[in-house]
Specification:
Layout: E1 9-12, H1 16-27, E2 32-36, H2 39-45, E3 51-54, H3 60-65, E4 73-76, H4 82-94, E5 99-103, H5 107-116, E6 120-122, H6 124-136, E7 140-145, E8 150-155, H7 171-175, E9 178-183, E10 190-191, E11 203-209, H8 210-218
Parallel strand pairs: 1-2, 1-4, 2-3, 4-5, 5-6
Antiparallel strand pairs: 7-8, 8-11, 9-10, 9-11
Helix pairs in contact: 4-5
The structure holds adenosine-5'-diphosphate.
Domain RCK N-terminal: 6-123
Protein name: Potassium transporter
Organism: Protofrankia coriariae
Amino acid sequence: MARFQPDAVLVIGLGRFGSALAGTLVGLGHQVLGVDTDRKIVQEMSSQLTHVVEADTTSEEALRQIGAGDFNRAVVAIGSDVEASILTTSLLVDFGIAQIWAKAVSRAHGRILDRVGAHRVVYPEHDMGERVAHMVTGRMVDYVELSDNYALVETRPPADIVGKPLGQTGIRSRHGVTVVCIKHVGADFDYAHPDTVVKADDLIVVLGPIQKAVRFAQTRN
Ligand code: ADP
């Protein structure tokens, strides 16, 4: 098996999520070993990833043969076959991989992945659904959930903060959010200052607890 650099990532399951993730990692300059049981998928991905292997990762022996234990980071992107996802994750835990990310298709699936020792469980479909829901309502342009219930929200400003310096709008006390940066039409994003004056057609990025940040982007006044 090819020797991989310490920041190489093992991606297991090259479905829609796994293949997009693996391709992006390669684009970011990481070596990626992609693994899938499906020969056709393995062939399709072979030109895009550093190395691709056809293997069933529910087999400890198969994982040993591909050198899974040499990786510091692995992503289990098997979703529809929940049993295979859980078995694979638990074997990677036994191999002592330092950072195991696993995709869950339901809360119950996620809880089990957590129990067997995945370090991070992600819910791509649920999270994207939530994100799009926030964007199709109100003035929100983009939404990124951070840890500890915080979110960054890109939005058009509500009328009550337009036309006066941010420091005089009382935005933190009234809305519970902070304006992090601002983009005037035709200009790049710039950091917001207390004396920055927001115009109605500006884009702003605010940071705050999720509920407050979302409510702020839905304020109509
Ligand atoms: P998505 O919704 O992202 O397309 P899927 O769960 O449908 O995700 O796809 C997961 C991929 O994982 C599929 O390409 C499938 O062939 C692969 N896969 C499923 N079971 C195993 C396994 N035991 N070992 C390796 N790959 C697997």
